[in-house]
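anyone else get weird line breaks when pasting these?? whatever heres mine. first is seq + tokens for prot A
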Amino acid sequence: MDTSAADDHSDEPLTPVGRLLLQPEMNQIIHCAMGFKNSIDIDAVKSHLKTSLLLSHPRFSSLMLRDSRGLQHWHNAPYVDLDRHIIVIQNPVTTSPVDHETAVNEYLADLSTSSTRLSANKPLWELHLLMAHNCGVFRIHHALGDGVSVMSLFLESFRTRGSDGNEEKILGRGRRKRVNGEKGWWGLLIGYVGTLWFSLVFLVEHAMRSLWLCDQKTAISGGEGVELWPRKLATARFRLQDMKLVKKAVPNAVSNSCLESNSESSWGNKFGMFLLPIYYHKSSDLDPLVYLKRAKLVLDRKKQSLEADFSYKVGCFLITYFGAKVASWLLYKMVCNTSFTISNILGPQEEIAIGGNLVTYLKVNTCSLPQALTMHMVSYAERADLQILVAKDIIPDPTFLAKCFEEALLDMKEAASSHE
């Protein structure tokens, strides 16, 4: 959309990562599905949104426009018409005799093909109310903000009255632990050398993956154009208590403070990525905790490096000096050259509600990528749900994959219990 209104000095230019996420190759929309305890009251939802921080946030009340030079800007809309953003679907979203979860996942899978866009004639978000399934689906363009930013805004907007207002408690976030802070100068020196070495090795691998190095082809490999293929979606469900039990069996395992920075983080798209090696092990006799310990060793090295920070800063550099198209092409190549993507975010530890209607589950996925398999996990209250999005012509049965993940955690839980 081209308009001179974007020349207004009050307009705010898109961030480098925001421009990247609007490129055709990497056009990403976040889908956040919320299940409700009771039937949906449309008027109550609208009333809640009108007074919430979500609607007053600049990103959720701004249009994405281009000025006469083709530069993209956020332009504040004088009025947000909720009737254009809230899409009410009265009838079941599938004619097949399936349960609510399967029906909602089929709906999300259809929305997740990269050809499904959000209209640029309004702020880049929508709320689909699936009345027959007691579910609301927020569609939010990734250019508005990353998962941590959006989740923080959700918590501020949909916090229940009984909450004590402690954001760190609700988010489950804490400050980062100091690394090697108590090991003396020799320990610090070794730590810094390790950081530099691992950073160099992993950044070289990043560059190679973006240009020519490709994962070995397997039964789940995707590739260029696969983002346009039809999708299926399945959910793997986990109990946080089971995860905590397994965590105790592995010394210094990943904790909340390692996953999230402090609560003073600002709004935006500030995320990096790790390239993780995944190995196939056929033996069933091996202690399942061995896999976890191996994964922890790799993650320790990744966290010690600056790979995620550099991947973000290098991306911003490329976008600023070479343009979003070049950066998008390189990122698209990296995704094509790797097997799958997995991400996770810490959600609320306490229940949230919209229009007085308690949310019973929270699930997140994004638009499809040129991979045949993408996975997104978010925690909520005492559970964590993993959304497994697949290209159904390559992976026809993601439900079987979800069951494998669930059984793997139970196997690790059993092994952890036997070690106590």
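and prot B, same format (seq, then tokens)
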Amino acid sequence: MDDGKSKVFNDPIHGLIELHPLCVKIIDTPEFQRLRFLKQLGSTYLVYPGASHNRFEHSLGVCHLAGRLVRAIKSRQPDLGITDKDVLCVEIAGLCHDLGHGPFSHLFEGEFLPKVRPETKWAHEKASIDLFDHMIEKRNLKPEFDKCGLNEQDIRFIKEQIRPEIKDENNEKFRGRPGKPFLYEIVANKRNGIDVDKWDYLARDCYMLGIRNNFDHNRCIHFARVLNVCGEKQICTREKEAGHLYDMFYTRYMLHRRAYQHKTACSINFMITDALIKANDYIKFTGTDGEEKKMSEAIDDMEAYSKMTDHVIFLILNSNDKNLAESKEILNNVMSRKLTYKYTTHSVAKRDKMLGKEDISDAVKEIIEKKKPGHQDLNDDDIKVQLVQLDYGKKSENPMDHLMFYRKNDQDNAVPITKEQESSFLPKEFLEQQIRLYCKANASDASHRAARYAFGQWCREKDLPAPMGADFGDE
């Protein structure tokens, strides 16, 4: 396949991992090395001091697990016709799946871009594919792919795994491996969310955050089996693993609740987002043909985008440009822990009373209108309302409803297992909505009380539970 050399990495989660020579060639490009400077958990690192890991090591871990899983299936079921090329393509997809993340990862995609370019439907998966193409061309990697026998169809297959919803010019899905749909369930499983990307970040994030992880991905690899389900081959698992997989989804939910959506991390996100928005017109990166691009424009030019990492905040902090003075002050306050907004309280929406973004957009004005007479010092700038969604990965659906199982004594037939068959202790709902109230940190105690009271009245009007820590009518 290739006369290059593989390389062994010592990973804190998976131990010694050996990667294919072509993977090593990709790792040694500036485009991939850029991932060393993107924190895996963004601003969560400013709350959890151990969360200093980067997307670089996560990507190596996903590559390793992708190879392990596909090789285990290949060894167990040789009749599936999995080739060495298939294995390599799956490993490369795992390696490159996060190439396209921007500064502070999901903050850039979910907070910054929607505010500066509300018309765009950009996603980091698209940037991963664009940057993958850019890397191959700029670093002249096509001959390296050729050496390994990988052609255009194989490269298409790699990109399809990174973004399974990708379509061609005729609005039809590509199928780099039309006869092996189960291979698309390894790196980014859109069917039920059980994939090696999740396995690595659950193990890695728990380890670095200092949070116990009760899920063991090695069991999933051991029991993975491809079966025919309604005429399509899918990855299934043993029926006894159902409870273990519920543990996996609960761990994901718990990490979102305790870390990813931590109330202080979200408060810091507000500030970093504001700083980046104010700096957008003045922080620029050299793109194709030497053209300077704003951060919001760089997503359309991979030459410029490949230069953007978390270091943008230090470009601001170390700048003497008067145009960046506001952004610099905000970030200095972040570093000094002088947060603009402080978490005050929250309510949890009922199943039949879920709110949408349109409800939240008017919430501040509605809440202010409900303040008690005499609290005239409370205004729109004093509060911020945030909608936080917590789920098992498929919004209100139970992801396990999209997984099939086999029995020990009948390994060739796929059967479903309902939640009721597994346990009566499992959740009845799989989507939780928190409506959080933040107040200006420097606001008076009277303003905080007024905001809490007004929020309680607003919750009552919306038929929501009483806010945490306060009764509806409590001042």
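btw re prot B: The longest helix spans residues 55-76. The first strand starts at residue 7 and ends at 11.
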